[in-house]
């Protein structure tokens, strides 16, 4: 039987994700309008093809100048578009014996990644990314948690405890191989 607090945590997570998505959509729409306005005012002369794209984990704007227009000035993107934080893709799998978590963190060294487990949560600090993942099970063996980082993907394996076992209280750092 699950605690009501687990559902409240999940409901709060969904509310926070909804708020984040609305803010992100509003910000991207505003930036796209500004980019289109700039192109229309001929701040960037020449013929431009401006497209938006929205794929899982990747959102952005593509601005292409038509071929042969070599005298046109460079198009300067708004600073906010270039500095916007990227949310890593995360998959969490649970079976009878193990929790497996996969996080896409391209372009980092394993030394830049820090993992901590506390209170049924996994804290991820990597480059400019800070993320807390609520783990689907609190009966886990934090001392035997392992992580590997290869080709931009962080793989975390956390064994579950037996039915009669209890997790020791505390904070656990996970070493990355």
What does this protein look like?
There is one protein chain. The chain is an alpha+beta fold and 177 residues long. It has two domains: 17-83; 86-174, Sandwich (Immunoglobulin-like). Helices cover 24% and strands 35% of the residues. The strands form three sheets. It has a four-stranded antiparallel β-sheet with strand order 3-4-9-8, with no helix packed on it. A four-stranded antiparallel β-sheet has the order 7-6-5-10, with no helix packed on it. A hairpin with a 2-residue loop joins strand 5 and strand 6. The two termini are 36 Å apart.
Shape: elongated
Low-pLDDT runs: none
Going across the biggest sheet, name each strand in turn.
Answer: 3-4-9-8
Rg is: 22 Å
- The secondary-structure element order is HEEHEEEEEEEE
**What is the C-level CATH assignment of the largest domain?**
Mainly Beta
What number of structural domains do the residues give?
A: 2
Helix content: 10-25%
Task: Give a quick account of the main beta sheet: strands, pairing sense, barrel closure.
Answer: 4 strands, antiparallel
Mean pLDDT: 81
Beta-strand portion reads 35-45%
Which labels suit this protein?
Immunoglobulin-like; four-stranded antiparallel sheet; 2 domains; 177 residues; 10 strands; alpha+beta; 2 helices; 35% strand
Q: Concise description?
A:
With 177 residues, the protein is α+β, with helices and mostly antiparallel strands. It has 2 helices and 10 strands, in the order αββαββββββββ. A hairpin with a 2-residue loop joins β1 (48-55) and β2 (58-65).
């Amino acid at each position: 039987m699950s605690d009501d607090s687990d559902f409240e945590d999940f409901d709060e997570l969904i509310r926070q994700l909804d708020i984040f998505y609305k803010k992100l959509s509003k910000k991207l729409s505003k930036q796209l309008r500004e980019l289109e306005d700039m192109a229309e005012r001929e701040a960037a002369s020449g013929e431009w093809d401006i497209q938006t794209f929205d794929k899982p984990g990747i959102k952005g704007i593509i601005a292409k100048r038509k071929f042969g227009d070599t005298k046109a000035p460079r198009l300067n993107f708004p600073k906010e578009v270039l500095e916007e934080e990227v949310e890593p893709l995360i998959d969490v799998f649970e079976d009878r014996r193990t929790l497996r978590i996969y996080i896409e963190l391209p372009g980092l060294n394993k030394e830049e990644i820090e993992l901590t487990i506390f209170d049924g949560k996994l804290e991820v600090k990597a480059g400019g990314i800070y993320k807390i993942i609520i783990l689907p099970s609190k009966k886990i063996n934090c001392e035997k948690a392992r992580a590997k980082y290869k080709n931009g993907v962080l793989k975390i394996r956390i064994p579950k405890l037996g039915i009669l076992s209890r997790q020791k209280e505390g904070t656990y750092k996970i070493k990355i191989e």
